[in-house]
Design a protein that fits this description.
337 residues; alpha/beta; inorganic pyrophosphatase (n-terminal core); 2 domains; Diaminopimelate Epimerase, Chain A, domain 1; six-stranded mixed β-sheet
Length: 337
Amino acid sequence: MAAPVTLPAAIDPELASAARRLVDRAGRIVIFAHQHPDPDALGSGLGLAHCLRALGKDAVVASPDPPPASYAAFLPGLATVVTALDGPPFDLVVALDAGEMTRYGDLYFRYEGLLKDAPILNMDHHVTSHGCGAVNIIDTTAAATAELLTLWLAQEGIAIATDAAKCLLAGIITDTRAFEFDATTPRTLLTGAYLMARGAVPLEVIKPMYRLRSLTAAQLFGLATATLASDHAGRLTWAEITPAMWLAVGAPVGTLDDGIPSFLIDIEGAEIAIFFRQIAPTTVRLSIRTTARYDATQLAGRFGGGGHPRAAGCTIEADLATAKERALAAARDLLGA
């Protein structure tokens, strides 16, 4: 039999205990996932919700945007995520994977009547986070919010059953691209092993997230990569996708384009990669990837975005040509510096 996996007590005990007191005092808890939720935001939220329900809490995960349906393959309970709140007032808001309330869209302000008396517990790992809660647990050395949350759950002795473990491992795997990004530490791997010991299986996340692609998604991938361009001797690469491309393959705008940013940075010689998604005539979302020499948040931050050193994002309110001109000029400045 394999030796049991033990996680370190990595969170300041006073902070960890303060967070636990907020949870213990609450009966009805809402867990916020940020706008355009990724598997770390959703996996952390659902993983925590599974654990809290086992403690007898009424816990709901809410996001301002619907989660991608494809994530249901590896996130148990995804169908329970809501985009609107109702019922009696909440006793606690848990804000995950972002450090500013604006990242949760208008959820808080739209339902202020249900939330105004609820303290906020904030957990995040982004370098751009300042904390938005009465209690803030922010650790920029964590590769994912799911890693940080798992450490807190273990430190506080809160049981993690199989469905929770699957959700939390999904968050870690997707924020590290299957433990590839340099944010992965020995502690990250140990946390992954801890969740595996509770029934989570890496392949159940890696295969649907990175290897399987529907025929429609493959067609969309082809259209997007046909726009591939580069300069600075291949150190800067980019591609784009427009509403017409989604329409051409019969897919809803903004869907089925996962994996393209990673494809762009994996091109030999690439150091900065930008994927432009035009979702409206004057709204363009950017997914930025970099190698270790450059910080993706430095580029995204110029346009009000953020994220991770190797993977970040932002939105530019402009037509596609203008957005590309502005972003590529900023990337060229970064390469030149």
